[in-house]
Amino acid sequence: MITKEQVMSALEHVYDIEIGYDVVSLGLIYKVNIAENNDIYVEMTLTTPMCPMAGFMVQEAKDKLKEEIKEANNVFVELTFDPPWSPDMAKDEVRQVLGI
């Protein structure tokens, strides 16, 4: 059985290259669901709806999940902007380094 921890660990290897931190540390992952058939569903956001790297980051998340979790069947990554991301969602150490 795939765990949420496995999914989050894989997603720690997906970076917002404009900011230089991974999507988990930035607080961009909103939901993780794993179906009984090992389909993985991730709902994530971006720091801004106008992010030019949106397509790249979604594809990178899918690729990392398929690559690192061999048991994964189908992988779905959906973008949402509700609620909008705010710097408060990032881990403390990220906020400190970025000065926010």
From TrEMBL:
InterPro entries: Fe-S_Maturation_MIP18, FSCA_dom_sf, MIP18-like
Segments forming domain MIP18 family-like: 4-77
Organism, scientific name: Tepiditoga spiralis
Protein name, UniProt field: MIP18 family-like domain-containing protein
Coiled-coil zones: none
